[in-house]
Write a structure and sequence with these properties.
This protein is of the alpha/beta class. Helices cover 36% and strands 29% of the residues. A five-stranded mixed beta barrel has the order 5-9-8-6-10, surrounded by five helices. 46% of the residues are buried.
Length: 228
Amino acid sequence: MTAVKIGMLVAVEMDAVFKEYGDSLTRIEKPGYEIYHYKVDDADIYALSSGAGEIAAAAGTQLLITEFQVDVIVNFGVVGGLTPEMGVTRTCVVEKVVHYDFDTSPVDHCEVGRYLDYPEVYIPATPELVEKALRIEPTLKKVACASGDKFIADPEKKRALHEQFGADICEMEAAAIVLTCNRNQVPCLLLKTVSDSIHGGAEEFNRALDETAGICLKITERIIREGL
């Protein structure tokens, strides 16, 4: 049986991969990026740190798909919580994403965040992988993610994102990853751990980044080992 090839796209959480896998990583250089190869059981993992933001994440996702012909894209990372339930270290699986700062409404007469390829503002992740992750790790919460090129620290802005879009978490790469995967017909799975709560901001994020990224990577690895 051919080993599954997994493209792992991370934004700013690569230190968790270095800490967990260390000397087992093989560095692959591509223009503009460094990719690290390692194995989890029979799976070949190609981990790419894109940097923050939608443009960087879209480019990195496409590189993994085109250059390495990966079978699936997995994204793990840290996020902001938009509801009291989504406290620090809460880990979730993204069911759908809204690109909240994408807006063609003046010309297309559609909702803010809506891509006309889709019947609503939400861009769906791969349902089969979401359900598989929930079976393997029942503690995960299935969430809607608000994604845009802004670090949201203000509690009022976090509440507004939740009220407008019904989102549970916010971050800066998920819309690009899901949209790119869907257009390439490559399945994707996004696992996120909250690093800053609804009342938290940059200080809470910086304090919790290493711990929460490590938690998210360990859950990601378990899902890979048990059936991705």
